[in-house]
Amino acid sequence: MIAMDEYKGKVSPDWCPGCGNYSQLRAISMALSELNIKPEDAVISSGIGCSSNMPEYINVYGFHGLHGRLVPVAEGIKWANKNLTVIGYGGDGDGFFEGTQHFYHAAKRNVDITYIVSDNQVFGLTTGQASPTTPIGRITKDTPDGNIEPPFNPLHYALTAGATFVARGLSGNIKSLANIIKAGIQHKGFSFIDVLSPCVTYNKINSYDFFRKTTYEVKDNNTKDFYEAFKLSSMWGDAPQSIPTGIFYDVQSPIYEDADVVLSKYNLKDTKPYQLTESDLEEFY
Amino acid sequence: MNDIIIRIGGSAGDGVQSSGLSLAKTLSRSGYYITTYNYYQSLIRGGQSWYQVRASDEVVKNQGSGLDILIALTEDALKRHTSKNINEGGASRLNGIAIFDDSMITNYEKYDDVKYYGIPLRDIALKYNSNPLLKNTVALGAVMASLDMDFSIYEQVIKEIFSHKGKLIDANIGAAKEGYEYYKNNYKIYKSIKVEKRKLFMIGGGEAVGLGAINAGMQMYFAYPMTPASSVLQFFAEHSKKFHVFLKITEDEISAINGAIGANYAGVRAMTGSSGGGFALMTEAVGMSSMTEVPLVIYEAQRPGPSTGLPTKTEQGDLNQILGAGQGDFPKIVLAPGNVTEAFNMTKEAFNLAEKYQLPVFVVSDLYLAEHIETVDFDLKYEMDHGLRAQENDPNFKRYEYTENGISKRSVPGQKGLMHNADSDEHNELGEVVSDVITDPELRRLSMEKRMRKLDTYIKNLPPTKTYKMEDAEYVVIQWGSTKGVIEESIDSLRSEGIKVGAIEIDHIYPMNHDIEKYLKNKKIIVIENNFSGQLNKLIKQEFLVDTKFIGKYDGEAFFPEQLENILKNIIVGKPILEE
Ligand SMILES: Cc1ncc(C[n+]2csc(CCOP(=O)(O)OP(=O)(O)O)c2C)c(N)n1
Ligand code: SF4
Ligand SMILES: [Mg+2]
Asked: Each residue of B498-522: pLDDT tens digit?
């Protein structure tokens, strides 16, 4: 096991005190540490949002890119060097608005990356607008009369797209979250982890208290059963113990890198590029 | 120039392009230098299309003016290409021989300067096979006879083209031979050019970019299909296994460019490519490549816009878009090859520049350049320049160190002790963000200047701007990209009439080499571009504060030499240059 300290970034997080992202930073570091993944062999690709500032605070290779585009960057990195552990990390606005198509196609391709979303049901960084997961009726900065759009269900979306690992985590429950992230990293294929994460500043409703009351950890569920996973993903509410967390779906299916004619044979980063010679021009004679 | 121009005219579905390719191949195999021109629409069947091959014993620089031999596959084609009111974007009407099936095509106006050489193409073809395209082979056989060529070369080309369709070989050879004999027995040799036996390779602009990228060590290509950038994508699709190049057709162009940036960040040479519409979607990430200082090569093959525009036509209308792509000021390099060989060379150059300066480099092409074929002169020598790289565990490593030349050492994932954050937010030397909370005006200034200094360094290392016959020139033509060949030939022709004109050929278009200034003093300047507004023209005026005359063409076709000569002559001799 590599010491947790090894993953500590040089910059301290500037998230609001109490922000759910702190636990995720810790859970990710814990997962990497327990899995013995060396800092130089891990890459976090993030988008734009409070959550997406993560790469600065953790001592691995980081790419803090554009709003909504962290998934294609992560794919490019993975396809260039399959030996790296590639984690995508960003917000619900980032991933479920601007990045929706990338999320879908990465899941469908079953690229071997782990995609973690800090789902605080709001735009944090831009100071409190409605996000794709904001519940109907919710008053936010840009929905003064209440949000009229039904919320996006990221787990359903991931499942129907073809993700082979789908889980819901909870910020604050660091140990369980770290275990889910560990399983996601170890899973061969596209892992999606939606993390319920309180934004203490702009979402006063979905607070730690709210989640302490409403969530419970699933036990003995059949993670090979798509319909059971789909059902667990549907469960939501204000009542006590109405929101399950844990690994809902975990199946094996061929990954993109193994199906591709080139990637299945080569790790490109370690492969000398093809040397073009005169004889390669013969087909143009 | 002792040349021959042959055009095959018909409709989509008539095999115009494949016949054109066999013709080009047979000519280049015989030792002719060739160049082609492809006129088509996005249609599977119908409409009109034509394919032109120009061949000579000297290097040919463009599709040429005049038309020696027409193979008319349809009545419409025969009328169209002989008409005195020909309307094909500057292509010349026929003033030589028309080869056509006179049993099928009977209703047309006859011109005195055209020789009508009817051949029963269909009847001959039917003796061998019922495939309707076989009549094209009969016609090509006749063309070989009209040029007094050795039939065996065409025979060999047929064998190769149909090698995977064994039984068609004999039918095609038989039909071609009979077309050849029919011509010999009935008509006179049209023209006989003695060419040296030489080995020439015949390559398209898109293939040249693909080969250049392979030669430069590119291992990954990310793209979403869009004409005319697709010829590069197609090249990689066909050669992915052979060259072990990873090809990813992404869900959109935004994904393509971000994926290519991820790959380059991880230390593998990767490229993305599109045409103007797809490139418009990529623009935000262009700035990100520059901000994070991740090398990136972007191939942009222009077609006429705006919007979906003319998907199968050519234009140079994206220079503004490329120069303006992305918010803010950031360093980038734009290269614009002028022909197929340059497309190969400049793609190679782009990869080294991208890594040396750690920024986005564009290779700009257009439909004409991307989709026509030339006999080329490729030099495969190449040395990869990976730029400055950090040593593992360097305790003093600063990814974005403020250096005098603007270039800092780079590390890639997997390297020990060099972890850092590549950030699209403004950052300091270590990659730490200085934008959101701890906004720091001083650091912002230093980081901005550090990145922009890379361009000063690049400009110092720029090769001298290419010129053509500038020694005693009084008139200067300025061009960029695929108009190079047609402009050079027009200059030759004007010079033969005593007009002192030369050209400046801007292939390193941004940032621009200021050595251009010395050629502009006391000269009449004419800027020629395949667009409406004169995008380079505006840049020239802005950079060098000179008066210019702009000539634009935006009908979807490239310039043709005769057309351009007339325009130039009119400007230079006809009336004084208008100050714009
Ligand atoms: C292309 C683009 N559009 C909009 C923005 C502005 N923007 C920055 S973050 C953000 C939303 C952040 O919400 P979320 O992804 O949920 O992240 P959080 O802050 O909640 O973690 C927006 C709209 C941007 N940076 N780039
Ligand atoms: S605004 Fe919300 S999401 Fe952003 S740092 Fe503060 S608590 Fe966290
Ligand atoms: Mg959010």
From this structure: 999 999 999 999 999 999 999 999 9
Domain that holds residue A82: 4-284
pLDDT of B552 > 60? The answer is yes
- Chain A residue with minimum CA distance to B265: A77
CA-CA distance, B343 to B507, in Å (whole number)? 10
Q: What is the DSSP string of B419-443?
A: --EEESS-B-TTS-B-SSSS--HHH
CA-to-CA distance for A80 and A103, rounded, in angstroms? 19
Within 8 A of B265 by CB-CB distance, chain A residues are 63, 73, 76-77
User: Residues B489, B562: contact at Cβ < 8 Å?
Assistant: no
B139 CA from centroid of ligand 2 (Å): 74
Domain harbouring A50, CATH code: 3.40.50.970
Q: Which of residues 122-181 of A touch B (CB under 8 A)?
A: 125
On whether the CB atoms of residues A73 and A45 are closer than 8 A, the answer is yes
Number of domains in chain A: 1
**Rounded CA gap, B453 and B476, in Å?**
32
Name A46's bridge partners: A64, A89
Nearest to residue B459, comparing CAs of B521, B388, B405? Answer: B405
- Which CATH fold topology does B203-376 show? Rossmann fold (3.40.50)
pLDDT, tens digit (0-9, with 9 covering 90-100), for A169-188? 999 999 999 999 999 999 99
ipTM comes to: 0.98
Ranges of each domain in chain B: 3-186, 203-376, 466-573
CA of A200 to the centre of ligand 2 (A): 6
| Architecture of the domain whose range is B3-186 | 3-Layer(aba) Sandwich (3.40)
Neighbours of B247 (CB within 10 A): 19
Rounded to 5 degrees, φ, ψ at B374 are -135, 155
Fold classified for B466-573: Rossmann fold (3.40.50)
Q: What is the pLDDT of residue B580?
A: 40
Identical topology for domains B3-186 and B466-573: no
Decide if B53 contacts B87 (C-beta within 8 A).
no
Strand partners, B9: B50, B72
Tokens 């409709």 locate to B11
pLDDT digits (tens, 9 = 90+) for B124-174: 999 999 999 999 999 999 999 999 999 999 999 999 999 988 889 999 999
Task: Name the average pLDDT for chain B.
Answer: 96
CB B410 within 8 A of CB B392: no
pTM greater than the 0.95 cutoff:
yes
Distance (Å, whole) CA B6 – CA A263: 45
> For chain B, what's the residue count?
580
For residue A128, give the 3-state DSSP assignment: coil
- Which residue has its alpha carbon closest to ligand 2 atom 6? A16
> Hey, is B311 helix, strand or coil?
coil
